Amino acid sequence: MINLASRDILHGWGKFVFTGIGLGLLIGVTLTMAGVYRGMVDDARALLENAGADLWVVQQDTLGPYAEPSNVHDDVSKELLGLPDIQEAGNVTYLTMQIRHDGKDIRVMLVGYEAGKPGEPGYLVAGRPIYQSHYEALADIKTGLSLGDKISVRRHEYAIVGLTRRMVSSSGDPMIFIPLKDAQEVQFLKDNDALVNERARTAANPAFNRPGIPGLLEAIQASQTSSRFVNAILVRTAPGTDEAVAGQIARWKHLEAYTKPQMDEILVVRLIATSAKQIFMFLVILAIVSAAIVAFIIYTMTMNKVREIAVLKLIGAMNKTISGMILQQALGLGLIGFMVGKFSATLWAPLFPKYVLLLPGDAVSGFILVMLMCAVASIFAIRAALNIDPATAIGG
Amino acid sequence: MSRKNIGLLMLLAGVAMVFAWVVMTQGPLAPVKVTVDKVQTGNLANSVFGIGTLKARHSYNLAPTMTSRVKAVLVDQGDHVVAGQVLAEMDPVDLNEKLIGSQRMVEKTANSIQAATAQVSEAQSRLKMVSATVNRYLELRGKGFVSQDMFDAKQHEMNAATSALTVAEANLAAAREEHARAQADMRGIGKARAQTRLISPVNGVVIARLVESGSTVAGGQVVLQVIDPDILWVETRIAQQQAGQIRVGQTAQVILRSRPQAPVAGKVARLDMVSDAVTEERIVNVLIDVANASVGEYAEVTIKLPEMNNTRSISSAALKRIEKQNGVWVLLDGRVQFKPVRIGLATINGQTQILEGLNDDDTVIVYSQQALRPGLKVKVVSELVRS
Fold it and tell me: Is the keyword Nucleotide-binding assigned to this protein (chain B) (predicted)?
């Protein structure tokens, strides 16, 4: 028995293929949208993975460095090392800021970390780790910086000595890693004008500028310019003890300690929830639009063949054969559309400013959905085809 | 089948192949790209980097010893001064008058000494005469010419004259003491008077003039700061992890903030015994020879460490730390495997010394496109990022 669908497609294959490509681009956009959502979640998770920690120790009653401002004294990390089951503890600072390079602004997350401790990027794609105790930086390739570049952050110039990949903040800003001491200065040391003002204000305060106590004012002013704060302490614990240690820290150290699942929840559920819903809405609308287009195309294609279908009916073709032809055409359209969509999404995904993560699982479920959608969309066309009066074949 | 159909089928097959290629190489199913390197043997030159501030090796804070009012500041910031030069003067208040008074007292006590000396000589003379009389009476009494009563009276006269001499001598000694005391008082007041002058201890430059005439300053409050501008050093802060190999005499390169293009040669002159416990840095003083530098200036110091000969090393980027264990990923039959290693020194140009754990023919993974895990299939490329 001959296949009516393939015959019909071969008859007008150009139209069919181009319609499929058009549909494919739409499906590509839908897949990319899903990829954008996956990318957002993955950005958040990448941040957690890159920290390489089991516990995030932060200021009491805050949600941690990624969601809320948190300041902890940097010597707390040494106290923590004294607790049982804590293997490593490293201070980190996070600051989202704008840096200028070659006349253009780059939005980055500036990370201060201690070499050899948690918080250090796990792998490099070029260059070397930071070895000088000051003024060296590792940059993510998304910043567009390359090895040997000099960037200026606040007072100092930093040389890029290494490049990382997929080191991003929860909002997708690429990271720049610098030594902790420099980062503390960047975050907490004021600019020159503010310092001069602050000095004048202190000097004007009679409590700090008392006669007969030489050196008091100088001592106070010196103490105002030094900062010993960090945003969080990353802790690695002995396997399986993270929750117990977190409880100990919260109870005795008057700090907040989050385990990885808790931090994941903060980042994924709370931080990006609204954006995720937004994208989900787009996804739903796109899916509906695609379904409508498929339905419309199949319907038009069927209506263009009214006479042929009427002839088929006249010569005694069964309803099953006719609806099979339309369904197969719809599924074929869906197959071409999906392939073109997947292909285009894969090709244009790296060009997006934010990370687009295309998961094979998403592609599979996307394929099933597309096929389902095409099948559903063909129902109208099938209904219309079945309603065609065989007399149409002869009549005007 | 017609030619058109064959053509269409071939087109479809082509599209399917391209699709498969895209899925396998561009997406998440593609193997991880890595770059590899071998263990290298050679000389390792290393250096240590630190930041610091330019300071004078010798700095002098000049302050009055007691609370006083500033009468005059005779030099200004930047003035060159010589040792012994008066730089500022405090108001002596009544010290001049006190000094004159004490001088008078010295003169007076000198006169007292003269008077006491005269009294002594008078008492001596009197004793001499009385003792001659007593001797004569002794002879006469022996022959019975004078009465015992008269002899006793003369004897008493001699005792009295002896006592008078003792008194006069004591008076003289007291007058001398008094004179010495008056002189000491005068010297003391003179010294207090001298203290109201701030005198440069060295040939140097005034770097700060903190107080103006008319101000009242507490004892010890700095009025002027003088430094010796010929001996400058950079007080360098070196992270404790890197400070272990620094020795006095090592050469260094110093870049001053004011002249970033002109590095200055320096030399480690002193290692502080006490580290900064808070910042975990050791202070290393690096002497430099530079003209017209401003003290307090920011400087970057790179200290050269001795070269290590014939050392095995790998690129520092290859070194990973997993579960408190240093190690590297090595490539075995296209799959990766973690090998723990013991490392030595890491150099500033990106090489890390390998003490043990690696064979010379091991292929080490330097860079990877994403985090590795044991058994992961990788694809070796020449570089991950186009430079």
Answer: no
Q: What is the pLDDT of residue B82?
A: 94
Which domains does chain B possess?
28-45+310-380 (2.40.420.20), 95-195 (1.10.287)
| Tokens 């075995």 -> residue | B332
Distance from CA of B24 to the nearest CA of A (A): 11
Considering only residues A223 and B88, tell me which one the structure prediction assigns the higher pLDDT.
B88
B369/B376 Cα distance (integer angstroms): 12
pLDDT for A353 equals 82
What pLDDT was estimated at residue B27? 60
CA-nearest of B283, B296, B272 to B239 is B283
Residue B41 to residue B313: CA distance in whole angstroms:
6
Helices A13-51 + A319-348 axis angle, to 10: 50
Whether B320 sits inside 8 A of A360 (CB atoms) is no
**Complex ipTM:** 0.72
In B, minimum Cα distance to A54 occurs at: B323
- Taking CA–CA distances from A6, the nearest residue in chain B reads B5
Per-residue pLDDT tens over the stretch B56-75: 999 999 999 888 899 999 99
User: What is the 3-state composition of chain B as percent helix, strand, coil, each rounded to the nearest 5?
Assistant: 35, 35, 30
Chain A partners within 8 Å of B222 (Cβ): 214
Quick check: A128 and B350 CB within 8 A?
A: yes
- Tokens, residue B282: 């050791």
**Most A CBs within 10 Å: which of B1, B6, B26, as the mutation test of the A interface?**
B26
Would the CB atoms of B29 and A360 count as touching at under 8 Å?
A: yes
The answer to whether the pTM exceeds 0.80 is no
pLDDT bucket at B269, cuts 50 / 70 / 90: very high
User: pLDDT tens for residues B134-179?
Assistant: 999 989 888 888 888 988 999 999 999 999 999 999 999 999 999 9
